[in-house]
Amino acid sequence: VTLPVLSTLEIQYPAEGGRASISCSCKNRTCQAVFWFWMGSKTHGNPQFLLYYNNAERTNFANLEDSKRLKCSKSDGIRTTYTLSIISVNKIDTGRYFCLLQYPSGAEPAVPGTELRPGESPPTAPPPTKRPKKPPPCICKKPVLKYPPRDCNPHIQWSLVGILLGLAAVLISTLYYFSRLPKKCRHKFAKKHQLM
Predict the structure, then answer these.
(1) Which of 23, 61, 140, 156 is the most exposed place for a label (fewest CB within 10 A)?
(2) Where are any strands of DSSP class E within the chain?
């Protein structure tokens, strides 16, 4: 069986002596079996067959010693999912794990695969970058006019108001005076001023 090297998207960091579980899902429920492969330092970059598992729960191991620490199971839902469990993981198990799914039409590799790094610590996420704060928008306020203006003296204003009121009173009284004169006097007054 030829297995293409697939890019690994998932990385697991199980503790040494712990348990690791790797899953691959079929594109539908027509899967019949799964082939598990491993590629690590011992395989020199070549995929190594681990085990075969079918829907009748029949398992064939490449190495009988692996039967003690490798277990495979199946779960059905919208898709069929096969899970490979590695018991008592150690540094030797470091590497990439892939599966080949058996369909009625033939075998197809499942993507993306999983990489195990037992005993390693996952990388810490870099601190979030702080975006520079935008300066607050400039709110331009219209100047508020104050009355009276600062450079105007209120005493001067009131004196101007008094003068205007006095002139208005004189004008009104003059008009009233002339309106009370008899017509003859008004004509004489008008002729006198015309002659002058």
Answers:
(1) 140
(2) 10-12, 19-25, 33-40, 48-54, 59-61, 70-76, 80-87, 95-103, 106-109, 114-116
CA distance 180 to 131: 87
- Best-predicted range by mean pLDDT (41-50, 89-98, 105-114, 182-191): 89-98
Q: Which pLDDT value is given to residue 52? A: 96
Query: Which H or E element spans position 176?
Result: helix 154-180
- Flag whether pLDDT at 112 surpasses 70: yes
What is the rounded distance in angstroms from the CA atom of residue 11 to the CA atom of residue 118?
10
DSSP reduced 3-state for 98: strand
- Could you tell me which residues are beta bridge partners of residue 61? 51
79: left (phi over 0), alpha (psi -120 to 50) or beta: beta
Sign of torsion over alpha carbons 80, 115, 17, 51: positive
Q: What is the DSSP string of 42-92?
A: GGTTS-EEEEEEETT--EEESSGGGGGTEEEEEEESSSEEEEEEEES--GG
Q: Does the reported pTM lie above 0.85? A: no
| Coil vs helix vs strand at 144 | coil
Give bridge partners of residue 37 from the DSSP assignment: 49, 98
Query: CA-to-CA distance for 45 and 38, rounded, in angstroms?
Result: 10
Q: Which two tokens stand for residue 126?
A: 């870099």
